[in-house]
Design brief:
about 300 residues; alpha+beta; Ribosomal Protein S5, domain 2; Alpha-Beta Plaits; 2 domains; 7-stranded mixed β-sheet; 4-stranded antiparallel β-sheet; globular; binds cytidine-5'-monophosphate; 4-diphosphocytidyl-2-C-methyl-D-erythritol kinase; 4-(cytidine 5'-diphospho)-2-C-methyl-D-erythritol kinase activity; ATP binding
C-alpha cells in the first residue's frame, strides 16, 4: 500500500537580482542569479479523498491551507493536465522562512509537483514539470532545478551555472514577512513611478559574479555581490528600515558580504568557512537584530524524493 511520497526542496538566495523594466503584464524582466542553499521544506503527498493541506514547523500558522496555497495549485494543475482527480493530502513541513524572500512557497509548489507525480504515477518528464512550474510562479522552476542558475524573463527561463566547491552562508531570519508584489511596487516607486520604471535598462548578469561562482572564490563573490547586488534591496529597506541594522551587524561581525535575500526580509551573509558561519550566527542572534540566524552551505540540489 502506498502511504506517501516525501520530497525535500531547498531554499534559495539571489546572489544577484538585477530588476529591469516593469512590463505591461505587471512583471519585471530580471537577470536573477539563483543559488540553492541547505534550508529545506519537506512536502509529503499521501492518498486522500479530496485535496487537503496541512502544515507544520516555524511560521506554519501563516501558511494558507486553502486552494490559494501554491502547493495546492501545483497539485490541481498536474491533476488537470493528466485527467487525474485532484485528490491528495499534502503535508508541508516548513523550515524555509515563510514570506522570507527565500522562495519557500515556490519550494512547496515544486515539491508538490514532484510528490504528486510520483504518487499518482503521472510520469511527467522534467521538461513538462519545469513548464508547469513556470505557470505556477517565477521562482518555482528553480526550486525544481536547484544548484545555481541564471533566470531570465521574469526569472523562469533558466540556464544552469557552474559552481566550484561550496559557499558558506548565514541567514538572519526576521520577525514577520514581506509581500513580494509590495516590494516590487516599492522598487518602481523609488525609481520614480510607472513610466520611469518601464524605461529602466535591460538587466544583465555581472560577469565577475559568474566567474566568482565558477571559480569557487568567496572573496571575489563578496566583491561582486557588493558591486552588483540586489536591486530589490533599497525597496525592502524602505519598507523595513530595521533591516539596515541587521546588515550592519553582520558586516561589523566579519561577514564577507551582506545582502537582502530576494524581496526580503531575510538577510544573507557570505562567510569564508563553516567555523566563521557558526560564529557569525551566534553574534547575529546575540545582536538582537534578527529573530534567529542559521548557518548553512550551497549549492544544494533541487527538489528530490527522499
Ligand atoms: O511569479 P510570482 O507569483 O512569484 O510573482 C509574485 C509577484 O512578484 C508578481 O505578481 C509581481 O508583482 C512580482 N514579480 C515581478 N517581476 C518578476 C517576478 C515577480 O514584478 N519577475
Amino acid at each position: 500500500m502506498t502511504t506517501g511520497v516525501t520530497v525535500s526542496v531547498p531554499a534559495k538566495v539571489n546572489v544577484q537580482l538585477a530588476v529591469g523594466p516593469l512590463r505591461p503584464d505587471g512583471f519585471h524582466d530580471l537577470a536573477n542569479v539563483f543559488f540553492a542553499v541547505g534550508l529545506h521544506d519537506r512536502v509529503t503527498a499521501a492518498p486522500a479523498e479530496t485535496l487537503r493541506i496541512t502544515c507544520s514547523g516555524p511560521g506554519a500558522e501563516l501558511v494558507p491551507l486553502d486552494e490559494g496555497n501554491l502547493a495546492a495549485r501545483a497539485a490541481a494543475l498536474l491533476a488537470a493536465r493528466h485527467g487525474h482527480p485532484p485528490a491528495v493530502h499534502l503535508h508541508i513541513d516548513k523550515d524555509i522562512p515563510v514570506a522570507g524572500g527565500m522562495a519557500g512557497g515556490s519550494a512547496d509548489a515544486a515539491g508538490a509537483l514532484l510528490a504528486c507525480d510520483a504518487l499518482w504515477g503521472t510520469g511527467a518528464d522534467r521538461e513538462e514539470l519545469l513548464g508547469l512550474a513556470a505557470e505556477l510562479g517565477s521562482d518555482v522552476p528553480f526550486s525544481l532545478l536547484g544548484g545555481a542558475a541564471l533566470g531570465r524573463g521574469r526569472g523562469e527561463r533558466l540556464t544552469p551555472l557552474p559552481v566550484a566547491g561550496r559557499f558558506h552562508w548565514v541567514f538572519a531570519l526576521a520577525d514577520g514577512g514581506l509581500s513580494t508584489p509590495e516590494v516590487y511596487r516599492e522598487c518602481d516607486r523609488l525609481r520614480g513611478g510607472e513610466p520611469a520604471a518601464s524605461r529602466v535598462p535591460e538587466p544583465a548578469p555581472a560577469p565577475a559574479l559568474l566567474a566568482a561562482l565558477a571559480g569557487g572564490d568567496p572573496a571575489a563573490l563578496a566583491a561582486a555581490i557588493a558591486a552588483s547586488g540586489n536591486d530589490l534591496q533599497p525597496a525592502a529597506l524602505s519598507l523595513r528600515p530595521a533591516l539596515r541594522r541587521t546588515l550592519d551587524a553582520g558586516l561589523a561581525a566579519g561577514a564577507l558580504a551582506g545582502i537582502v535575500s530576494g524581496s526580503g526580509p531575510t538577510c544573507a551573509f557570505l562567510v569564508k568557512d563553516t567555523a566563521a558561519g557558526h560564529t557569525l550566527a551566534q553574534v547575529l542572534e546575540a545582536s538582537g537584530t534578527c529573530r534567529a540566524a542559521r548557518a548553512t552551505t550551497g549549492p544544494a540540489p533541487g527538489a528530490h524524493i527522499v
